[in-house]
């Protein structure tokens, strides 16, 4: 779908990974054992790329802010940028930026990752990059990117952008006591339940959400197959998820992010933002990797009657 010029653009910041997605596993691998997958796909990945691809498919101009390698693996997947139709003006090509490889092992409704990061996540001249494009919003696809570039939110605000952040699981960072302070200024926080529990130290979803709602103007908490919860101040709204055939849950959270951001920037109410987000996340799990399912049915037609929203007040 072509982007609509009336809708402001979104910059998606973060590393671009080369995902090797193994699906149809009979069980997860164990040390000393070998497991055979029935399927394998090589696709571009990473939260920035996946969210940008879904935003572009919704008709909103998406600009990648990242670095990308020049190694054979990266070059082999480069054509997927053109298929996604993304604006690549802010992508820096450098030898030390790759290969950034993630091995994805999808089993049932869950998956495990083995990743290698290479070089810096973003170009060094961030201020020049952000000032050189017209965009209304910056989406930071993983906390690691913000940890590497702690001035990123401040720079985005200087250029008049609102900011969203998906913390994304990182065992070395997710329990950091300074995480919330570094996130100061983020308008929209987009964690999943496991991340929210780790960040707040509360296993109960409601308690974790209450703490996050004290730090961020808007929180959209992803609950996987259970849907999602919206929080703004003391307002809570929950929505369920439709039952779909799951192929691979990789990137479902990033697709969710794209749906929510798209509706949120259009000024839609909370229920519509959640509905759009859950619909895209539900579509994403029906294909391997984070973007293969973009060729499936229009997400607006996928939520159906299984999605139920309700207001909840603490």
Which short descriptors sum up this protein?
314 residues, UDP-N-acetylmuramoyl-L-alanine:D-glutamate ligase, 10-stranded mixed β-sheet, 11 helices, 30% helix, 24% strand, globular
Strand content: 15-25%
CATH homologous superfamily heading: Ribokinase
Helical segment tally? 11
From the spread of the alpha carbons, the general shape counts as globular
Mean pLDDT: 90
For the termini, the CA-CA separation is 40 Å
Architecture, CATH level 2? Answer: 3-Layer(aba) Sandwich
What does the radius of gyration come to?
18 Å
Number of strands: 14
Structural class: alpha/beta
The tally of domains stands at 1
- The first-level CATH class is given as Alpha Beta
Low-confidence stretches: 299-314
Remind me, CATH topology? UDP-N-acetylmuramoyl-L-alanine:D-glutamate ligase
Largest sheet: 10 strands, mixed
**Run of helices and strands:** EEEHEHHEEEHEHHEHEHHEEEHHE
Helix content: 25-40%
Strand order of the largest sheet: 5-4-1-8-9-10-11-12-13-14
Pfam families: PfkB (PF00294)
Organism: Devosia algicola
Keywords: Kinase, Receptor, Transferase
InterPro entries: Carboh/pur_kinase_PfkB_CS, PfkB_dom, Ribokinase-like
